[in-house]
What does this fold into?
Amino acid sequence: MNLKIIAAGLISAAIAAPSAFASTGVVNFNGGITSSTCKVDGQDPGAGPINKNVTMPWVRASDMASVGDTAAKTTFRFVIGGPGDASCPNGTKVYAFFEAGSYGSVETGRLRASNRDNAGVEFQLYDKNNKAIIVGDGSQGDVKETIVNNTATLFYSVAYYRVASISNGALQSQTPYVISFEP
It folds into this structure.
């Protein structure tokens, strides 16, 4: 009987013992919900994916002689809303958030080629101020446009970025995106 009491006491003490891990801090998550449903490139959101094709020029390997060199920076845009688009309220801030998706590199924040391995080249996205975008990273919302006359245009660009020895051939990649709105 005393053995049962002692065992129960030891189990209770072990359960009540303070954790061996100390809290380092707190992670706060902030976000929100909006009713903005602006058109994207003239298409209604929710009616299916709104895909964009960006054609980049072919370049010579010598155009990117060293690791870290870029070439063929190509601009693309998203037109948000449009004149008279009442679902796209003036004063709302908007930007595109590029997710890492299947081809985002955690190490570099760039996009790997989707059609072949070891191409030696990744795709680097840039905001309109020529700042490199890290796909999947929350810092992307630094540059926002304000909707005026129910319209905003978001400008971005993409370039080839040399990461290793280059092998010749076609390159493709892709990234999911979300148009984000803030009041």
